[in-house]
Amino acid sequence: MAKQPDKTDSTREKIILQAGPIFASKGFRAATVREICDKAQVNLASINYYFGDKQQLYFEAVVRAREMRVEQVPQPEWDASMGPHRKLKGFVGLILDRLVAMQNEPWQVRLLMREILQPTEACSHLVKEYFRPFFDSLLEIVDDIVEAPLPQHVRTKVGLSIVGQCLYYRFAAGLTSLIISDEDFQEHFDRDSLAEHITSFSLAAIRNYVREPGPQTEQK
Amino acid sequence: MAKQPDKTDSTREKIILQAGPIFASKGFRAATVREICDKAQVNLASINYYFGDKQQLYFEAVVRAREMRVEQVPQPEWDASMGPHRKLKGFVGLILDRLVAMQNEPWQVRLLMREILQPTEACSHLVKEYFRPFFDSLLEIVDDIVEAPLPQHVRTKVGLSIVGQCLYYRFAAGLTSLIISDEDFQEHFDRDSLAEHITSFSLAAIRNYVREPGPQTEQK
DNA sequence: TAGGTTGTCAAACAGTTGTTTGATACGGTT
DNA sequence: AACCGTATCAAACAACTGTTTGACAACCTA
What we know:
Strand content of chain A: under 5%
Mean pLDDT of chain A: 90
Helix content of chain A: over 70%
Oligomer: homodimer
């Protein structure tokens, strides 16, 4: 077994950092240990030596991807005096930067999305460690917007509506680029424009939605 | 080469129908021609005989998945006299039924989502043949809701906000089930509750959003 | 009946896969 | 020096991959 698990430039570290992009772009199955070892310039047997097997390397790559992503895009500070629009926009922007990352598509993001789409054991780790508290802090912002507290399930649905609008641009990026012209995309669908739209759209929805829920319970 | 491409219970047909679910749940790479032929109870060489290679079989399975899904969940009729809420709810429900299909997750849906996430040549076929007109008919409903016509890019963004809210429950189904308790999910996140929420949320957003776009251009 | 097309089959092919092995070298401790 | 845990390496292993082959049977046409 390996002894020092956290030296910085060790063979173990090189493997994780090279395996991440490959897993991200090809998926677990299509990524081969030979390609990973080639890119990392380590011997073929190193993966099994340090991680036991390919699956465990994948797990560690996912965990590392999350850690790196949080470091790369730190959460902006919330000022209690900020208006709801700016606060919500700050969070929407954070989702777009951290989890959507439209322009550069870092491997960490693509790997995390892979985990969301087809959860392995790594996903429950991500939820407990990251997604849950992340989502809760969004719901606190929603709480600030509405005057009367929302029923729990409505609160959750509203939060997921906001998250859904953002994550669409990650999940369906390939489809969107086939639907929208390139010029339109460059001009109107950059990070800031989307943050502004999703924020305004959601804010308007929350305020109006709570006020007049529409024919909710009735209507067959 | 094969002669009759459209006999109903032919070997060719059996292969497509058995390959679909396997591609859907495992992806192109992890699905093996041996498993497909076993399930279809045909000889191993049949795939290459009828489709040339595995890739072409995948393409045809995707196309077939779309056709079957449109048949399985037909578009409800639009009554011009219907109010905007009912009209929009009808369309949101159609997305949820056809493309999200939360309860049973048919293989056709999972295969189409796979194409959206990682587009192959099959995806541009899907867009031209299906997604584009589908999305356009949503935008027409949006047009009916607003009085003054929207700028093109805003129109598109609004449409994608609606679609995004729906598709979230397909893409992140695994994550959602880890965030929400099972009882909550059964009780409040069924197809009808979600359709109602997304419709009301979006309707409120559109009406309020257009009226007061918020601090759009200003604000640094 | 003869000949050709179409479909099915078992077997093999050539390449890739994750993993294991045994040898070898390095670096520190006794 | 002798020793031992750590690390790296080339090579091989066994299983699996998509695809090809050639034989054989069923069917239709002439």
